[in-house]
Amino acid sequence: MDTPAIKLTGLKKRYGSGDAAVDALKGVDMTIWPGEVVGLVGPSGSGKSTLLKCLGAVIEPTGGRMELAGDVIYEDGWKIPDLRALRRDRIGFIFQAPYLIPFLNVTDNVALLPMLAGQDNAGARKRALELLTALDVQHRAGAQISQLSGGEQQRVAIARSLANHAPIILADEPTAPLDSERALTVMRILNDLAREYRTAIIVVTHDEKIIPTFKRIYHIRDGRTHEEAGEGRVI
Ligand SMILES: Nc1ncnc2c1ncn2[C@@H]1O[C@H](COP(=O)(O)OP(=O)(O)OP(=O)(O)O)[C@@H](O)[C@H]1O
Ligand SMILES: [Mg+2]
């Protein structure tokens, strides 16, 4: 039997304290296997982004347990010393807002992380161009970020999150600014990646166009999750 890529047990996150405390996650259980693309859906404010940020070690949970590929990352406190290395090497993020680096051009935004992780610059730029081509934005490869439309920025951000072959990709509304054909293209790329590299991918979405593509969907409401089978439509 495989080791889960992600295993959460009773994961909790409370923001603030006292009267102002918000219990965003009240005990989330979740298991994601290598090679799976899983949907995470729920109403606004239900804790979806909070869950992804905990998983990506962007914010610290306040209770429960989190394992990645069998390593205990959090159990009532962080259990590994180097969270930056975890974020750099093990997690690819696609945020709700693209957060691209404004003073680098498109190609270098995509190539940066692999370069920082030690790949040679030419190889990293070649791979960046392949990804930009797959996302149909290669014609903007030399442009500055400020010259791109919102949808183009999002596709560059997706290319960047794929560039370092992280075993886990966390995507927060990745298709929101895209038209339906491009949204399905993004889902096809994510599914191909999951199959080819055994990447585990969580996609937060409200997007009716892509929901039928998931085999499994976690619903989150009031800080807790439950799992449902999806259609798993082939795209
Ligand atoms: N930094 C913060 N400080 C205090 N409360 C926060 C903070 N971030 C989020 N919250 C609260 O935690 C709850 C969950 O927020 P979260 O951003 O995870 O929701 P979401 O499911 O991603 O919503 P959306 O679909 O609108 O993006 C909300 O009640 C929100 O107001
Ligand atoms: Mg959110």
Automatic annotation (TrEMBL):
Q: Identify the Pfam families for this entry.
A: ABC_tran (PF00005)
* GO cellular component entries: plasma membrane
Which UniProt keywords are listed?
ATP-binding, Cell membrane, Membrane, Nucleotide-binding, Transport
The cross-references to PROSITE patterns, in alphabetical order and at most eight, read: ABC_TRANSPORTER_1, ABC_TRANSPORTER_2
Q: Name one GO molecular function term.
A: ATP binding
Q: Which SUPFAM superfamilies match?
A: P-loop containing nucleoside triphosphate hydrolases (SSF52540)
Domain ABC transporter intervals = 6-235
- Secretion signal span: none
| InterPro entries in alphabetical order | AAA+_ATPase, ABC_transporter-like_ATP-bd, ABC_transporter-like_CS, ABC_transpr_LolD-like, MacB-like_ATP-bd, P-loop_NTPase
Note the superkingdom of the native organism.
Bacteria
User: Know the name of this protein?
Assistant: ABC transporter related
Organism field: Candidatus Propionivibrio aalborgensis
